[in-house]
Amino acid sequence: MSIRENILAAVLKNQPPASPLPDIDSFKGDAQDIISTYCDVFTSIGGQVFVVKNFTEVAALIKKNFDSTKRIVTTLSELSDVFELLSTSVDPHTFNDVELAIIKAELAVAENGAVWLPEQRMGQRIIPYICQHLAVIVPAETIVPTLHEAYRQIGEGQYGFGAFIGGPSKTADIEQALVLGAHGPITMTVFVLK
Amino acid sequence: MEKQTKDHAALAEAFIQDEEHVNWHDGALWWIRQKRDIASKQIPEWEALREAASQIKSNVLSNLHDYLVQFEANAIKNGIKVHWAADAEEHNAIVYSILKEKDIRQMVKSKSMLTEECHLNEYLIERGVDVINSDLGEYIQQLDNEPPSHIVLPCIHKRKEEIGELFHEHLGTEKGVSDPTLLTRVARGHLRNVFVTRRAALTGVNFAVAETGEYVVCTNEGNADMGAHLSEVQIASMGLEKIVPLKKHLGVFLRLLARSATGQPITIYSSHFKKPREGQEMHLILVDYGRSRQLGRPEFRDSLKCIRCGACMNTCPVYRKSGGLSYHNTISGPIGAILAPNLDMKKHADLPFASTLCGSCSNVCPVKINIHDQLYQWRQVIVREGYAANTKVLSMKAMAWTLSSPTSYSTMGRAGRWVLNNIPFAVNNKFNPWYKQREMPDGPKESFGEWYAKNNG
């Protein structure tokens, strides 16, 4: 027998009698004040939130809050006349000098502040990790209460890679002192588009 | 790495020499336990979530064979190359062969307790492959040539001054610098250079979804992603028990994991890997290494439900005051003490005894493993199999005799009180382990039994 067959045979021999799966469809969150809940939670995990009406406001806030002399990339055609539209085909290493990346989430979760980004939304998988600062547009109507609603909405999903991202990269490995910007972005800003 | 000869008590004795340090360690972990409490209380259905998670894992264990076959088929369909390894040696050989085929001599690795268990780094370094741990805590431990002392907080036993000294020695920071932000920025710079120059990256796996063939990796630092998305070869190592049946089950586990671990609502990054990037190779190694054996032990199989949050360590009075390295096993604390004897009962015979059986571990466990019951049951097995220390066997026998009849109990009680009151030096000496770090009390004049007989007889 091969290694695989040996392992599977041992598992089959040793696994206990069938135990049923619980029903988890009753888990759901509260949709009341969902936008303000999202904003509060995201702020509490070290993020920054702006509620905006349109992309003109987004562009203005970015120019005010970030260093425009450095490289700013985006996947969004709405911002492509102001910032560099990122290429989905170049070597991902070429993004190592990106100061700010601006992308758009598919949905966001009020209970934990995280945004859901399938790779098509990232442009390239490395983008939300390699940039020094990350900005994400979240249409207000895509905010869901908890991860249960999020997974219901995502379904199987047409992606090769996808991620929940909930705040700037962080570590507390040195004496439990919180430091933002471990390896990924030092800050994360969400623009809730209402 | 098989150099350990001291048991938990002896290693802990060294750890507690520095009282101020032990108090800091104790307090730091208790603070994390408190953050876990605050986070869990914000979820009204917290207990229902724990119960659901536990039941999902029961289902996984009872149907693991089919789920593994299903996961494998879906992963292959997604373009992932799946490998199987029965033990550490096979796992390490697979990783090495993947790298060798591409002539890769440098790899970056994010946190994976499994590869620590397998001693992958040593194996690869012996064969001329350089490995760098990218999780900051693990990177620090690697600089110091020590294993992690905690599965979530690898260098929690170190003070910032010690870390500053390590950075001064290895990374050339100024002597005396110990500011956490400054040190983290230095590591960020060094590791960024590592990420952009490595052709291969290895990650652990938190959850693997049978339904879709994707796997989820959770980090706060983003180090798993930095390595994976810049590599041409991506390798994931997972224990067989990491399977979840359906994708929607991730909602239950991701709500529990970070809240239980650090009190965060979710880890910063929860990355779902399904297919390799264009032009990239993605490998996944399914590792048994004792899991199928543990599955066959009815009283201990639930230990395989563990999602590695570390909550049992943070709450454990023995862990907090003895430090993770005293457990001489990759996974320390209460959960480590019930997993380790399965791998090597003789070597880890001391670990189930490193507990007060207070039950706090079971109370905080997000998947409701009856950890303290299993600690107690391992003690029975270890004594029965003849692996308990002689002093423990003798004292257990003396205790059994003392408690076996009212006469022997009251005789020993009288003898004990007489010794404490008349010749205290007979117990207040270094030959009595209970005297260490303690003063023996004065003996009471009479026992409760004697008092009761006098007053109510």
TrEMBL record, chain A:
Q: Which SUPFAM superfamilies match?
A: NagB/RpiA/CoA transferase-like
What InterPro entries does its record include? FTHF_cligase-like_sf (IPR024185), LUD_dom (IPR003741), NagB/RpiA_transferase-like (IPR037171)
Q: Where is the LUD domain?
A: 94-192
Q: Superkingdom, according to UniProt? A: Bacteria
UniProt xrefs under Pfam families: LUD_dom (PF02589)
- The UniProt transmembrane annotation reads none
Query: What protein name applies here?
Result: Lactate utilization protein B/C
Upper lineage is:
Bacteria, Pseudomonadati, Bacteroidota, Cytophagia, Cytophagales
Automatic annotation (TrEMBL), chain B:
What would you give as a GO molecular function for this chain, any one?
4 iron, 4 sulfur cluster binding
- PROSITE patterns documented for this protein: 4FE4S_FER_1, 4FE4S_FER_2
Q: Name one Pfam family in it.
A: Fer4_8
* Family annotation (InterPro entries): 4Fe4S_Fe-S-bd, 4Fe4S_Fe_S_CS, FTHF_cligase-like_sf, Helical_ferredxn, LUD_dom, LutB/LldF, NagB/RpiA_transferase-like
Please cite one Gene Ontology biological process associated with this protein.
Answer: lactate metabolic process
Task: List, for all copies, the residue spans of the domain called 4Fe-4S ferredoxin-type.
Answer: 296-318
| Keyword annotations of the record | 4Fe-4S, Electron transport, Iron, Iron-sulfur, Metal-binding, Repeat, Transport
Q: What is this protein called?
A: 4Fe-4S ferredoxin
